[in-house]
Every structure is written in structure tokens, then in C-alpha cells.
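Figure 3 (text version): C-alpha cells given as input.
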């Protein structure tokens, strides 16, 4: 009876919400709001184009000495950490500071970057990629030239004979080198695993011993992490490091590591081991440690190089460790039992740098596709004048711009704090960059046609070389689940009591009723025009980008509701509902992409960079289509499994597995 008494009031409230929505759509909008979100008109664009930029006026963007000192003091000198930007988004929160695109380079660093890029371009132009493909090996002359350029010491401090580049500059160097993917992948393993582990976790003695040799290229490092039965499951490794019976400071390593990057040429291996004893706490994750193992130590057995689909000359090998003795004081990285946390932090740098490599290859593919579209004719028309080709070129450009924006935003976060936390941001950047790069390469291949599949053609080589990058570190599908799981768990700790009550409507009918009313209200709020939430993101960007800022705010609003809906439906079983988690990861990836593009294009437009109008137009288009994609993912989450097709999909897949192959009979078979 209590419920029946409320039904007329609920029906009346729901009708009022839709009436308000209709009235708000036909009502004349507020002039102030329109002015804030109105895109720049053609007249204002012409005016901005005619406005001379700083460099045309002969002016320089001078940095104040106080500003330089403040930035350097804030960078890597204070024990500070960042807001977990893409984690709090799952709960509808947003740190508006992330919309201020990082600008940490001083004038001297900018000059150094341009000089290094010119030298690297000359170096990459001199590399014969076809010779590397044929020989499946990189010549010593190339390594010597890399040593002259100090490429092995990009992030090593100057006191150890390195270049002492920060993350943004290092990513920029990898972007320039990425036109030769094999060499860049080798350098990635050396820099972001070997050198970075010593810089962040190594002792002073270890740094003095290893870093000078690594900077000159006399000592090459790589990581030994993956095993045959534990690819992505890094807790399930079998390589062990046990205490020696005769010396408590000596550990004995036994196990086999698979698919070690540049294992053929490396001198030092960063080996991820399981220590049987627990050293720090009762936590399950304190059983793993890192050790530095030298190539010439007794018991290190290296297999011949393995041929792969792409990245020929990478020097991929298997390495077996049999009773290898290491001293804890000299060869352990960090504290014993700290290996899992070290690996997670290193992955943040690896994924960010790998995304920068994707940007470099993407720009090279755009250059090749543009030249082809300009020169090639088909049906008496140039390819550049055909709509389908223009569409492919547009997608190639906007994908590259987006991955570039995400990459340098993430690297800027790394440089802005001494203890950065970017597990979700770096994972989203790596997923987006590697997936979109492969699509970009396919579009480039379609533009070249049959010529592009000829062995030795640059497009064919890039298509093979970039394919393994999506599986580097952790495969993208696993990363999607991990990022969504981390975000959902951060929300579950906040709304645990709400989820418990909403999943028990018999015991808590009031909570269920309030949830229904709130959901109707929020749906009407989302449909109201103009949409407003609580962050007012348009205040942090250029006024011409007000509409994309509203799209971003709407996306945050949707993610909050979808996350609560997912937890309400699945509860503790959310970890097993991988299809829902994938949708959540796609939504948060769109949000991070929109955030990076908004911040970057706002900065470019505000300071008058070349082609800044082009950037704002791409931001408008991307945010518009991203909102549509987010709506589609949210609708699939709100619907039941049988309506989205999830249940049918899983049922058919299980039937195929029972048949151990394709279960359908050929259409030529007869039953009569």
C-alpha cells in the first residue's frame, strides 16, 4: 500500500521532468552561455590568422629566472605526487588542473631539443632498413654512431656522461628515432628498464658503477620478465631466487625467461624473480624482487636469436638461469620484496615512451600517404580529390594528433612530480596509441594498394614492425581490464554500503526507490540543453572550446552513472564480467583523449601557435564523435545481457570450444 500511494507522485514527477526538457529545448538560450561556448566565427579566424605571431614580430618567449627556478624546484626535488586523474573520474570527480597542458621546458631545453632532433634525423636517414631486414642483424657501425650521439644515455645525468633529459625530451627523442622501429625498441628496453631502474631504485654505488658504462654504450641493459606460462600474470612466475645455505647475502637464481628484447647483445639483465620468503609484510605482493645479472656470470645460458613477424634484428632470445649466484648488496634493485611495485612504476615510463614511438611512426605514415595521394591518379582523378581517400587521411591525422596529445600530457605528469602515479593514464595512452597506429598503417596500405604489400616497401615493413607493440609490456586487452578494474575498485570503496543496499531491495526498499528517482532525474538532466554538471570545465579552456568542454563534462557524468550501474548489477562478480569492464575502459579512454586534446588545443590557440585553428577543429570533431561512442557504450551497460548480445556471444563461443573448432557443417553437405 505504501508503494501504491507513491505511484501517482512518481508518475507526475517523471512527466514534469520531460516537460522541463521540452521547454528547455525550445526556450531561447541564455546569451551569456552562448557567448562562452560559441565557436570562433570565420571573421575572427581570419583576424587571428592575420595576427603576427611572436616569432614573426622578432620577439622571443623569454622565461623569467624566478619561473625557471620555481619549475626546477618543483620538478623531482620535492616529495610530491599527483592526483590520480583518471581514477577519480570513475566517481564523477575531475581535477581541472589537468586541463592546463604541461609546459615544463625552458628556453635552453627547447634549443637542445631542436638540435638533437636535427642530428637524429640525419642519423635515421642514414640507416638502411632493408639491410637490417635481410641480415636480421644490426651492424656495429650503427651502434657506434648511436654511442657518438649518446643515445644510450638519454636520461642518465650529466655527471655520469649522459644527456640528462627529462621524460618529455626523452619521449621526443624516441619519437624521432621511431622511423627505425627495431633500433628504437632495443633502446626502449635499455633506457626505460635498465637505466630507469637504476636511477629510481639503485644505490649510489650501483649508479656510479653501471651508469657511466651504460651512457657510453659499453654496457647494454634489458629486462627479463616474461615466462612461458606467465605472460601477463606477473604474479605467477616460476623463476626463483633463494637464499644460499652458506651465505645469507647470496641468492641463487633458477628459471627461464622467454622472448627477451635484445638478449643477444645485452650485457646486463634486469631479472624479475620470486623470492620464497616474505620480507616486508603479510601482503601477497611482497614475494618478488629484481636482480641485476651479468651476461658472463656462470649459469647464464642464452639461446640463438628468434625470428619474428616483424622487428627483424631485435635480438630476441630465451635466457635460462641455472644456479646463478648474485650478491644482494650489489645486485638487488630496491628492497627485497619490492619487485612488483618497481615493475608497476617502470611500466608507466615504458608505456609512455612506447606511445611516443607510435607518434613517430604515425607521422611517417602520414607523410608517405600524403605523397601518394598527391602523386597518384585513378580514374583520371588524383587520389587527393577523392572523398574516401580524404576520409582515410583525416582519420590518420586525428588519430596521430590524439595519441600525441595523450603522450605528452602523460610525460608532462611524469616530469611535474617526484613520485608520479600514472598507472591508468599510461595504460590508456599505450592502448590508444598502439591500436590506432595499427589502424593507421592499414589505412596507409589501402592508399598504396598492391604496391604497399611488396616485400621491402616501407608500409609493409611498418605494418609488420608495429604489430608486436600492442603486446609489449602487457597485451592491450589485459590492460583494458586492469584499468577498468582499478577504477571500479576505487569507487567501490566509496559506495560499498550503497551497492549492498541497492542489491537487497527487499530489506532496503527506500534506497531502491530513491535510486530510481535519482536515475530519472539524472537522465533528464543529461538531456537538458545546455548540459551543466558541477565542474564548469569551460572556465579552464579557451572560450572557443566551450562546446568540447561541455562534451567532456557530459562524458564524466556518464562514466559516474555507468560505474555505479555496473557495480549495482555485478557486485563482487564484476571481475568476471570482462565485457562490462571493457566498455568502462573504452569510456575512460575517450575521456582521457578528450582531456588531452582540449588542454593542448586551448594552449595552442591561446599563445598563437601555427595552425592552431586546425587543432581546435580536430578537437571539436573528436569530442563530438567521442560523445556518441560513449553514449553507445553506456546504453550497452544499462541494457540486459540478452539485449546487448553478450549472453548469446558467450554461449556460441562455449559451443565452439566444445567442438574444438568451427562447429558449422559445410553448406554443400546433404542429409537426404
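Below: residues designed for each position.
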Amino acid at each position: 500500500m505504501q508503494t501504491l500511494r507513491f505511484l501517482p507522485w512518481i508518475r507526475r514527477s517523471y512527466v514534469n521532468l520531460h516537460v522541463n526538457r521540452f521547454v528547455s529545448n525550445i526556450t531561447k538560450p541564455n546569451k551569456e552561455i552562448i557567448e562562452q561556448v560559441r565557436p570562433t566565427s570565420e571573421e575572427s579566424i581570419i583576424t587571428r590568422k592575420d595576427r603576427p605571431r611572436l616569432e614573426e614580430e622578432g620577439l622571443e618567449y623569454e622565461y623569467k629566472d624566478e619561473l625557471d627556478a620555481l619549475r626546477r624546484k618543483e620538478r623531482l626535488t620535492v616529495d610530491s605526487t599527483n592526483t590520480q586523474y583518471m581514477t577519480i573520474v570513475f566517481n564523477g570527480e575531475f581535477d581541472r588542473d589537468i586541463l592546463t597542458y604541461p609546459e615544463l621546458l625552458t628556453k635552453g631545453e627547447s634549443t637542445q631539443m631542436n638540435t638533437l632532433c636535427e642530428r637524429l634525423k640525419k642519423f635515421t636517414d642514414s640507416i638502411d632498413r632493408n639491410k637490417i631486414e635481410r641480415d636480421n642483424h644490426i651492424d656495429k657501425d650503427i651502434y657506434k654512431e648511436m654511442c657518438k650521439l649518446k643515445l644510450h644515455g638519454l636520461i642518465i645525468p650529466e655527471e655520469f656522461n649522459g644527456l640528462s633529459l627529462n621524460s618529455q625530451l626523452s619521449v621526443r627523442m624516441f619519437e624521432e628515432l621511431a622511423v627505425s622501429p627495431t633500433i628504437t625498441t632495443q633502446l626502449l628496453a635499455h633506457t626505460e628498464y635498465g637505466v630507469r631502474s637504476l636511477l629510481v631504485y639503485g644505490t649510489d654505488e650501483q649508479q656510479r658503477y653501471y651508469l657511466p658504462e651504460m651512457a657510453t654504450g659499453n654496457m647494454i641493459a634489458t629486462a627479463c620478465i616474461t615466462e612461458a606460462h606467465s605472460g601477463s600474470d606477473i604474479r605467477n612466475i616460476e623463476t626463483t631466487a633463494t637464499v644460499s645455505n652458506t651465505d645469507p647475502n647470496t641468492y641463487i637464481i633458477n628459471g627461464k625467461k622467454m622472448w627477451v628484447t635484445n638478449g643477444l647483445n645485452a650485457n646486463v639483465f634486469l631479472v624479475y624473480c620470486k623470492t620464497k620468503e616474505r620480507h616486508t609484510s603479510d601482503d601477497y605482493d611482497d614475494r618478488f624482487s629484481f636482480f641485476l645479472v651479468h651476461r658472463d656470470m656462470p649459469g647464464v645460458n642464452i639461446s640463438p636469436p628468434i625470428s619474428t613477424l616483424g622487428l627483424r634484428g631485435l635480438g630476441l632470445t630465451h635466457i635460462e638461469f641455472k644456479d646463478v649466484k648474485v650478491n644482494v648488496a650489489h645486485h638487488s634493485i630496491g628492497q627485497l620484496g619490492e619487485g612488483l611495485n618497481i615493475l608497476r612504476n617502470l611500466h608507466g615510463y615504458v608505456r609512455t615512451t612506447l606511445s611516443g614511438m607510435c607518434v613517430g611512426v604515425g607521422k611517417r605514415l602520414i607523410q608517405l600517404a600524403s605523397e601518394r595521394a598527391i602523386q597518384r591518379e585513378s580514374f583520371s582523378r588524383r587520389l587527393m580529390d577523392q572523398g574516401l581517400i580524404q576520409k582515410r587521411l583525416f582519420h590518420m591525422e586525428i588519430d596521430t594528433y590524439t595519441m600525441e596529445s595523450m603522450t605528452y600530457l602523460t610525460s608532462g605528469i611524469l616530469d611535474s612530480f617526484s613520485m608520479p602515479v600514472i598507472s591508468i593514464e599510461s595504460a590508456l595512452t599505450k592502448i590508444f596509441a598502439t591500436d590506432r597506429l595499427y589502424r593507421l598503417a592499414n589505412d596507409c596500405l589501402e592508399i598504396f594498394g598492391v604496391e604497399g604489400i611488396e616485400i621491402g616497401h616501407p608500409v609493409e615493413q611498418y605494418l609488420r614492425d608495429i604489430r608486436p607493440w600492442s603486446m609489449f609490456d602487457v597485451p592491450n586487452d589485459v590492460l583494458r581490464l586492469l584499468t577498468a578494474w582499478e577504477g571500479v575498485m576505487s569507487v567501490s570503496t566509496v559506495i560499498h554500503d550503497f551497492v549492498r543496499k541497492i542489491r537487497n531491495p527487499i530489506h532496503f526498499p527506500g534506497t531502491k526507490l530513491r535510486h530510481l528517482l535519482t536515475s530519472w532525474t539524472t537522465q533528464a538532466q543529461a538531456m537538458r540543453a545546455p548540459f551543466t554538471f558541477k565542474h564548469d570545465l569551460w572556465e579552464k579552456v579557451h572560450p572557443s572550446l566551450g562546446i568540447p568542454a561541455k562534451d567532456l563534462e557530459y562524458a564524466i557524468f556518464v562514466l559516474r552513472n555507468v560505474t555505479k550501474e555496473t557495480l549495482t548489477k555485478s557486485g563482487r562478480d564484476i571481475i568476471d564480467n570482462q565485457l562490462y569492464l571493457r566498455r568502462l575502459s573504452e569510456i575512460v579512454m575517450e575521456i582521457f583523449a578528450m582531456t588531452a586534446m582540449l588542454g593542448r588545443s586551448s594552449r595552442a590557440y591561446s599563445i598563437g601557435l601555427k595552425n592552431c585553428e586546425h587543432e581546435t577543429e580536430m578537437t571539436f570533431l573528436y569530442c563530438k564523435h567521442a560523445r556518441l561512442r560513449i553514449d553507445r557504450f553506456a546504453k550497452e551497460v544499462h541494457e540486459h545481457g540478452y539485449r546487448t548480445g553478450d549472453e548469446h556471444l558467450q554461449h556460441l563461443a562455449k559451443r565452439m570450444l566444445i567442438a574444438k573448432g568451427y562447429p558449422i557443417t559445410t553448406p554443400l553437405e546433404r542429409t537426404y
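The first strand starts at residue 221 and ends at 224.
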